[in-house]
Batch of 2 targets.
Target 1
Amino acid sequence: MAEHYDILGVSRQATEAEIKKAYRKLAREFHPDANPGDAEAEARFKEIANAYEVLGDSERRARYDRFGDDGLGGSGGQQGNPFGAGGLGDIFETFFGGGNPFGGPSGPSGPPRGEDLETALNIDLRDAVFGGEQMVNVRTAIACDPCEATGAEPGSGTSRCGECGGSGQVQRVRQSILGQMVSASQCPTCSGRGETIDHVCKVCKGEGRKIETVSYTVDVPAGVDSGSTLRLTGRGAVGPRGGATGDLYVHINVEEDENFLRDGHDLLLRQPIGFAQAALGAELLIETLEDPETLLVPAGTHSGRRFRLRGHGVPMINGRGRGDLLVELVVATPSDLTDEQDALLRQFAELRGEEVAPADPGFFSKVKSAFK
Ligand SMILES: [Zn+2]
Ligand SMILES: [Zn+2]
């Protein structure tokens, strides 16, 4: 996941004013009103707002700096020694399932949020360079139709929860090394709703959701690389009984291309060139990911020399500009000479004063035996 600082484009040492300024600028740029119908801009806007929610608040920012996102709740990240400076309140919550040691008061809450899901997406180099829409199939949980995600058989009523008496919370008393402790936590029977269903839905057995494979369209941004992860907010599993939907994380894997080798934002192409072309110079037509480009090879070019075709590489993600295509010339030695070509090359070698193997085919059998 991208760092909140990276999302706002500020350093970890940025002042409050710098963070605020960066946020305002980005928020204006990616605001949904300014980008109607642009899902990518909307996702960016959410990310930006989320980052500012953390970094714009000095206390939350300090926690994030120390513990990362774990420090901000949700996963109940362990914060060092629970007997430390936190005081007794922290001990209660850390030990007794308050869940989020940094969250607000843990009153009755709604149904649990659905699971975050992960999936892998394999794309080829062209799709990574140019971006575009891809499909992923995900096994996920969707709302149950007959009960409209309530988990109750249609027409069935609800009753006050017997376990918590309708408060949605249960008190627990436990013995600990510090003595008897009382804590309140969400009622497990009614999940904090305070009421239970009289007759559960036969289709979902009261879950309010069912497992199904769903196809989603993923907007792959131009320039992604293997190891990138895209988050699709709200595309995870729906929570039980109408709970909020989790997110879907799509891990990108870019398959190797048979012609182009990727090196960050540059692409490398090994281009064979004839021996005479390299010596005399030539105009080559070079395959790129778009239209072919002409490359002027000067006379006397050595094998291995690289030429740069600017702007034919991989686009910078979330930014302007594009890498280059590096063309590495490989001089191909002819191995299929006709008699005429053979004779001409011999003449050429003689003029150059280069000693070559005699035309007598017996020579090669002698060479072979010499290497045995
Ligand atoms: Zn209850
Ligand atoms: Zn149902």
Note: The pocket of zinc ion (ligand 2) is lined by residues 144, 146-147, 151, 201, 203-204, 208 (CB under 6 Å).
Target 2
Amino acid sequence: MQDILGLVDEKRSKEILLDFLKIEGPSGSEKAVAGKICEILLEAGAEESNITFDDANKQMPDPTETGNLFVRLPGKGRPRLLAAHMDTVPLAVGVKPKTQGVWITSSGRTALGADDRGGVAVLVATAEALLESGIDHPPVTFLFTVREEGGTWGARFVDQVMLGDAEMGFSFDGREPDKLVIAAPSSDKFTITIRGKESHAGTAPERGVSAMEIAAVAVSALRKKGWFGKITRAGGEGTSNIGAIEGGAGSNVVMGSLQMQAETRSHDPEFLGKITKAYKVAFRQAAKAVKNVDGETGTARFKIHRAYNAFHLSPNSPAVAAAAEAIKTVGLNPGPKVQNGGLDACWLNEYGIPTVTLGSGTYNAHTKQERLNLPDYLNACRVALLLATLPFDESSNSK
Ligand SMILES: [Zn+2]
């Protein structure tokens, strides 16, 4: 075991990290990142034929330079998958990484983009160590996804055939390397379009049907019944939010239409359905209730899409057991964690690969205060190397 951990070269792992932090690549512009991954791993001895891209980018609503990148290292044993996403939030564009003691930070004007270049670097350092050492290992697929931020699009449209026969997955995207995300919620995202009727607000407001009024009546009903914001009620728990609104022509016109962006989340998909349904009912009833003097009403239309689906892994799941074993082997204490947001792992779990998410040392992601802790990052490299090499026999997981 010590021999395996000896393969983590701290200096080289940091070098790889800085290489990837410097590359600009917000969602949709991942090509340069993918190019660098291929360059390093081909140089380390990967076979050209084991490096492939899927065409996930062609199925996404927004233009995206490349599909997801797969690097396969053949071996003998239980096949596994290591994953990280190549994109960063737009706030990281123009980053100048600085090392300050055990931390890497941005200059303060941008985010750092360690979410998720930290994860990318963990995977590349691991693959390079496997290739250069020639150590025996099971079949490992390294999956580098695109467009995780803003919708987990790469993972959603990942080529499921190319995922292969992996029995367990480990996604590196987060803070501490000893915390493993074993559960995430389902979420619906939706656009609500309300149409009423415009009218002069001074001379004939009674002839208008106010889209604003319909929205207000609906939100008030949701609030009264406990479906707005944090939801705790008999039968389930979840959250709901209306986060953006757009509409109207000016203060002197009864608002003829408006559009809102909303979402619901719950760890229980059935209860999620109830929250989303409560929204539909509230808006449709409000649209019927708000009438002008001529008895005219408005409409409320919903465009709903399932953003991601919940997963809950049992402690006996091979992925959870393997991750816990690897974390203990590097001297840390594994702590299972429930997340209330979407992850690439939601899709990998849905596509049949039990996948946990581990940290690679990134703190304050999506802000200008984002920073990466080097000791955490190096521990993530050690955990990843163990996950890529240890046999994790079926028998040791069945307890
Ligand atoms: Zn991320």
Note: Residues 85, 115-116, 148, 173 surround zinc ion (CB under 6 Å).
